[in-house]
Write a structure and sequence with these properties.
heterodimer; A: mainly alpha; MetI-like fold; 2 domains; 14 helices; 75% helix; B: mainly alpha; two-stranded antiparallel sheet; 74% helix; globular
Chain lengths: 278, 300
């Protein structure tokens, strides 16, 4: 009896703490959603953070008929091209690190791993100068190189660990059949590494999608901006129209949130990979 | 004869290794490695960034001596270390609490996990703008709540030298606690159920199980998380830049925001590179000290 009572008290305590954090992490999302249906007039009249008295769709119209579409396209372009190339380049290198014996193997792998410890912002000035020298400033293509370079260490880390787990016997029998290393990589290793590639892709896509300081430095023209820069642009242009600004934030974050809702396990696994084994 | 075949095979092997590694080496070399080397080279220049670096005057370590006396910079370093401490204590600490919550099998934890994780999906720009609005002195939510308690108080959260750091640090914790929640939770799933069952049979309370079993078994994950959090805090830029730009009066300046201002607003590329080089040195030093400390503890 007594232990039952204890247990229910524990349970109540557990729910109180959980609900407190639920409110803490959830309330900005609820508020944003609420605000997106509020007119500027209603906001200005003093109904700052309460429910809208009248449902208003004008904010969505306003955001969708602005440059926002362009920011979207830009972000999708840069992020997907960078993710694709990062995954390809990393899987090639990881295969060599995991399955081929060569001198300097450990040293070179370490060199890539150090990239996770170095503060990447410290390369900002040289990369800005380099990009300017090759006339790639204010060009979305100029972001791809740096993004891949920053995404490679974690990608190689995850994929090398994956390839090391793959049994050597598959490779050995292919060698006996006379398959070249590239052939083994392309038709055996790459197909079985799909889970690792998806982890790498999710992790890096989120990083690239939300990246700020490099795009801030390398892109100037409004129509070439990616979403994070675009949100700031929109926020600067509509400073007094708070509901529209929040609608922009909501729409800009929606693709990632929707993807998360549909593939929650994958996203969570993707974002927790890399730190467990360290 | 046989030797030459073996040799050819070996050469073929190293040739293919070369091709497998080439793309990665090229990209990583062009940006990351080149960047680090150049940062150190630029750090000795008196250079506005307008002309080419090759024509800038080399002033040796003059930028470094200047940096050592730059009180704005040391204020920024202080803020970075405050960020390190707050991140390790609160983000890892509360991340652990949340990980324990979502690791239980009580009803509702799946929904809790879904929501707890969401801040991590927002871009820092979105987070920054959102919280700026919540902190707004006139129409912000916090002052709205504050006014229920004391009607005439209007606190300028991000405009006050005393409050600004606390206000931004709160938002950083809000955004990154979920990161440590999922890292620690991933570590917890690697611990076998059986040892808990055995401990429960032996009469160990959940509290004892946490301190005597979960925590020691998670020490690897905790250590990795701490390193991530330290490195992240020393290079941090985004939220501070979006929410305060380092202000008011440099009270929320970080090394990275100070570097950015010197490079791209004050046209002092050389000096900014010195700051960047110093960031590399400080980060590596802190990591080495941390590794040394945790290793020494493990050996004891």
């Amino acid at each position: 009896m007594k232990s039952n009572e204890m247990r229910s008290i524990n349970k109540i305590g557990f729910y109180i703490i959980s609900l407190f954090f639920l409110a803490l992490f959830g309330f900005p999302f609820v508020l944003t959603l609420m605000m997106s249906f509020k007119s500027q007039a209603e906001y200005m009249s003093g109904n700052y953070w309460n429910f809208p008295k009248q449902i208003f769709f004008g904010n969505y119209q306003r955001v969708l008929f602005s440059n926002f579409n362009m920011y979207f396209v830009n972000s999708i372009l840069v992020s997907s091209v960078s993710v694709f190339l990062t995954a390809m380049i990393a899987s090639l290198a990881s295969y060599a690190f995991a399955k081929m014996k060569f001198r300097l193997s450990a040293g070179l792998l370490l060199m890539f791993m150090v990239g996770m410890m170095i503060p990447v912002h410290t390369t900002l000035i040289p990369i800005y100068q380099l990009t300017r020298a090759v006339h790639l400033t204010d060009n979305l293509a100029g972001l791809v190189g740096p993004y891949i370079s920053f995404g490679l260490p974690i990608a190689i880390f995850i994929m090398t660990a994956f390839f090391k787990e793959v049994s050597d016997s598959i490779q050995e029998s292919a060698v006996i059949d006379g398959a070249s290393p590239f052939r083994i990589y392309w038709s055996i290793m790459l197909p079985i590494s799909v889970p690792a590639i998806s982890t790498v892709a999710i992790y890096n896509f989120l990083t690239y999608w939300n990246e700020f300081i490099y795009s801030l430095t390398l892109i100037n023209t409004n129509l070439k901006k990616t979403l994070p820069l675009g949100m700031r642009e929109f926020c600067g242009a509509e400073t007094v129209n708070i509901p529209a600004v929040l609608t922009a934030i909501l729409i800009g974050s929606l693709p990632v949130i929707l993807f998360y809702m549909f593939a929650q396990e994958r996203v969570i696994n993707g974002l927790s990979a890399g730190a467990v084994k360290g | 004869m046989t030797a030459s075949i073996a040799q050819r095979k070996k050469r073929g092997n190293s040739l293919s290794v070369f091709f497998f590694l080439l793309p990665a080496l090229l990209v990583y070399g062009t940006y990351t490695l080149y960047g680090i080397v150049r940062t150190f080279q630029y750090s000795t220049l008196k250079w506005t960034g307008m002309g080419p670096a090759s024509q800038a005057a080399n002033v040796g370590l003059a930028n470094y001596t200047r940096l050592l006396q730059d009180s704005h910079f040391w204020h920024a370093v202080g803020n970075n270390f405050l960020l390190v401490i707050v991140s390790v204590v609160f983000q890892l600490g509360l991340g652990m609490v949340l990980a324990l919550i979502i690791n239980t099998s009580i009803k509702g934890t799946k929904f809790f996990r879904t929501v707890y994780f969401m801040p991590l999906l927002l871009s820092t720009v979105a987070t920054g703008i959102l919280w700026q609005l919540l902190y707004d002195p006139y129409s912000g939510l916090f002052n709205g709540i504050l006014s229920l308690v004391s009607p005439h108080e209007k606190l300028s959260w991000l405009g006050s030298e005393k409050v600004v750091m606390v206000a931004v640090l709160f938002v950083i914790c809000w955004q990154y606690i979920p990161q440590y929640m999922i890292l620690l939770r991933a570590g917890m799933t690697n611990i076998s159920e059986e040892i808990y069952e055995a401990a429960t049979i032996d009469g160990a309370s959940p509290w004892q199980q946490f301190w005597r079993m979960t925590l020691p078994l998670l020490s690897g994950t905790i250590k990795t998380s701490a390193v991530l959090s330290i490195v992240g805090s020393l290079k941090y830029f985004d939220l501070f830049w979006v929410m305060t730009g380092g202000g008011p009066n440099g009270y929320s300046e970080l090394m990275a925001t100070y570097m950015y201002k010197k490079a791209f607003q004050d046209d002092m590329m050389g000096y900014a590179s010195t700051i960047a080089a110093f960031m590399v040195i400080i980060s590596l030093a802190v990591i080495v000290v941390f590794q040394f400390m945790t290793r020494a503890r493990e050996e004891r």
